[in-house]
Write a structure and sequence with these properties.
Aspartate Aminotransferase, domain 1; 2 domains; four-stranded antiparallel sheet
Length: 423
C-alpha cells in the first residue's frame, strides 16, 4: 500500500521547519489531541483580518458582503465534505458545544419549550444509550440530560478486543430508547465502530442517532447520507483547521423540529417585547457574532484535505498501523490497548509500559523530539475498565511516515532502559 508524499506535505506546515528539544526535528504524534496547520489555513485567516474583516450577516457594505461570501463558502465546503447540504451545517465553537447544543435543545423540547411533543421529548420512561468508550464530551452531556428529564442512561460495554458487540447493542436498544449517541472512532483504542449497523438497530425503534466524529472526519471519507445517522459533530482543530470552531450536521427535518438553546441576535425573524419568531436552520442555532476567521480557516483546511483525497489519507494511516502495531507488540512489558488488527482501526496507539508512569514515558519521548499525549484522554470510564490511571497515546496523521514509528519504538526502548537503570 502506497504512502502519501510526507516530505512534500511537511513543507506545507510551517511548524515542521522549527527545531524542538535538543535541536531535533519535530516528530508530531499527537494529532488525536489537535492537528498541525498548513500555511494555507493560516494565510486564509490572516487574509480575512487584513482585507475582509466585518461582522457576517449584519451589513450591506463591501466588507460585509465579502465576509458573508467567505463565511458561507466555508459552509458550502463543509457540506460537500460531509455529503450534506448547506442548510444542515451549523457552526459552533467546538464539537463539545455541538453535542451540548443537542443535549440542551432536546432538554428544551422535553421541558415544553417546543410547541408540541415530538421525538425529542424525553421523560422518565425514556432511555439514552451510549458506549463505554465515549470521550467525556459525548458522555457528560447525556448524563446531564438524563438528570434534567428523568430519562435513564444506559451504555454498551467494550469487549476484551477493544470493540463493541453488535449483539450487545441489539440487546440494549428497545422501545424506550430515544437517543443513541456513540463515537465513530475511539480516541483511546483506535476502534472504528460499525456506524451503519448500529443506526439500523436504532431505526427499528425510531431512536435518534448522534455520531461523535471528531476522530473520523479528519481521517476517513465521510458521507452522512450513506451512514444514515441523524446528527454528527466534529471539531475543526483536529482536521488541520483552527481552534474555536466546531460543526454540527443534522438532518434538515430534525433541525427544523428541534428548538434552540442559545438566544439572542442573528437567530430571529422577528421580535417583540413579548415574543420572538426564530429563523430557519442553520441561523436558528447560530446566535451572536461567530468565529468568522476560524470558520474560513476551517474551510481552507477541508479543501486541503479534499485535495489530498480522504481515501488516500485513510490508506496512508492504515499502512502506518500495519507497520506500527506488530512493532509495538514486540516490545517486552508493553500493553497495547485496543484492537491488534488493522481492520476498522485508526492510527491511534495507546499503550502502557510495565513499571513506568505514562507521564514519565512522555517526558523521555519529548527529549527525543517526539510529541505524544499522556493521561486519561478524557475517557475516565474506559481507564477504570482497564484498571489504569492513563496511557501513552501516539496518534499518526498525514504528515507522519514509517520513520516516525521507528523513532517512537526507539524512544520507548530508551525510556525502558533509562528507568531500568534508575531502579
Amino acid at each position: 500500500m502506497s504512502l502519501l508524499p510526507v516530505d512534500k506535505i511537511k513543507k506545507d506546515f510551517p511548524i515542521f521547519q522549527r527545531k524542538v528539544r535538543n535541536n531535533l526535528d519535530l516528530i508530531y504524534l499527537d494529532s488525536g489531541a489537535t492537528s498541525q496547520k498548513p500555511k494555507s489555513v493560516i494565510d486564509s485567516q490572516v487574509d480575512f483580518y487584513n482585507n475582509h474583516n466585518a461582522a457576517v450577516h449584519r451589513g450591506a457594505h463591501l466588507l460585509a458582503e465579502e465576509a458573508d461570501e467567505l463565511y458561507e463558502n466555508a459552509r458550502e465546503t463543509t457540506a460537500q465534505f460531509l455529503g450534506g447540504v448547506v442548510e444542515e451545517i451549523i457552526f459552533t465553537k467546538s464539537a463539545t458545544e455541538a453535542l451540548n447544543l443537542l443535549a440542551y435543545s432536546i432538554s428544551n423540547a422535553s421541558l415544553g419549550l417546543s410547541s408540541d411533543r415530538n421525538r425529542f421529548t424525553l421523560d422518565s420512561d425514556s432511555e439514552i444509550l451510549v458506549t463505554e468508550m465515549e470521550h467525556h464530551a459525548n458522555l457528560i452531556p447525556w448524563q446531564e440530560l438524563a438528570k434534567r428529564t428523568g430519562a435513564k442512561l444506559k451504555w454498551v460495554a467494550v469487549g476484551a478486543n477493544g470493540r463493541i458487540s453488535l449483539t450487545d447493542f441489539q440487546n440494549a436498544i428497545n422501545s424506550k430508547t430515544k437517543i443513541v449517541a456513540f463515537t465513530h472512532a475511539s480516541n483511546v483504542l483506535g476502534t472504528i465502530n460499525p456506524v451503519w449497523e448500529i443506526v439500523e438497530l436504532a431505526k427499528k425503534f425510531n431512536a435518534i442517532t448522534i455520531l461523535d466524529a471528531c476522530q473520523s472526519v479528519p481521517h476517513l471519507p465521510i458521507n452522512v447520507k450513506e451512514l444514515g445517522i441523524d446528527f454528527l459533530a466534529f471539531s475543526a482543530h483536529k482536521a488541520l483547521g483552527p481552534t474555536g470552531v466546531g460543526v454540527l450536521w443534522g438532518k434538515s427535518e430534525l433541525l427544523n423540529e428541534l428548538p434552540p438553546y442559545l438566544f439572542g441576535g442573528s437567530m430571529i425573524e422577528s421580535v417583540s417585547m413579548e415574543s420572538a419568531v426564530y429563523s430557519k436552520p442553520p441561523r436558528k442555532f447560530e446566535t451572536g457574532v461567530p468565529n468568522m476567521a476560524g470558520v474560513i480557516g476551517m474551510g481552507a483546511a477541508l479543501e486541503y484535505l479534499q485535495n489530498l483525497s480522504m481515501k488516500k489519507i485513510h490508506q496512508h494511516e492504515v499502512a502506518i498501523s500495519q507497520y506500527a502495531i506488530p512493532k509495538l507488540l514486540e516490545i517486552d512489558g508493553l500493553t497495547l490497548f485496543g484492537p491488534t488488527d488493522t481492520n476498522n482501526r485508526s492510527a491511534i496507539f495507546s499503550f502502557a509500559l510495565e513499571g513506568i508512569h505514562p507521564h514519565d514515558v512522555g517526558q523521555v519521548l519529548d527529549q527525543h523530539g517526539i510529541a505524544v499525549r499522556t493521561g486519561h484522554h478524557c475517557a475516565w470510564p474506559l481507564m477504570k475498565k482497564y484498571g489504569i490511571a492513563g496511557t501513552v497515546r501516539a496518534s499518526a496523521y498525514l504528515y507522519n511516515d514509517l520513520s516516525d514509528i521507528d523513532s517512537l519504538i526507539e524512544g520507548i526502548k530508551s525510556a525502558q532502559n533509562y528507568f531500568r537503570k534508575a531502579s
